[in-house]
Automatic annotation (TrEMBL):
Record-linked Pfam families: CMD
Molecular function in Gene Ontology: peroxiredoxin activity
Entry-linked InterPro entries: 4CMD/NDH-1_regulator, AhpD-like, CMD-like
Top-level division of the source organism's lineage: Bacteria
Identification of the protein by name: 4-carboxymuconolactone decarboxylase
PANTHER family, sorted: 4-CARBOXYMUCONOLACTONE DECARBOXYLASE FAMILY PROTEIN, BLL4600 PROTEIN
Domain Carboxymuconolactone decarboxylase-like residue range list: 15-97
Length: 106
């Protein structure tokens, strides 16, 4: 999988945020050996879904699939978190996952 990076057009208004995102978050934190990219994706998707951060969730669902998680595993994680993070959060996440899975299957 190609290394993640912040959208470069954001650097026009927030160059430091893009720099820190690319160098610290994606260049350091995501590259640490303590967790695999697959596990980091599962954690990230779970937190984004739980906190209803739907703008970032779609991107990270795609990354999770690229990092080896299956649609079934992500669906199971989302179903599980519905009881801890709320039904609306889970329904939003599963709707996004379905859309991405459908696009990839086409």
């Amino acid at each position: 999988m190609p290394k993640q990076s912040a959208p470069q057009d954001l650097a026009l208004i927030a160059p430091k945020l893009v720099e820190v995102t690319n160098e610290v978050l994606f260049g350091d934190v995501w590259e640490r050996p303590g967790l695999s990219p697959r596990d980091r994706s599962l954690v990230t998707v779970s937190v984004l879904a739980a906190l209803y951060r739907s703008e970032q969730l779609g991107y990270h669902l795609g990354v999770a699939l690229d990092n080896g998680l299956s649609v079934e595993e992500l669906s199971e994680a989302i179903t599980h978190l519905a009881f801890y993070a709320g039904w609306p959060n889970a329904m939003t996440a599963i709707t996004q996952l379905k859309k991405i899975a459908d696009e990839r299957a086409a």
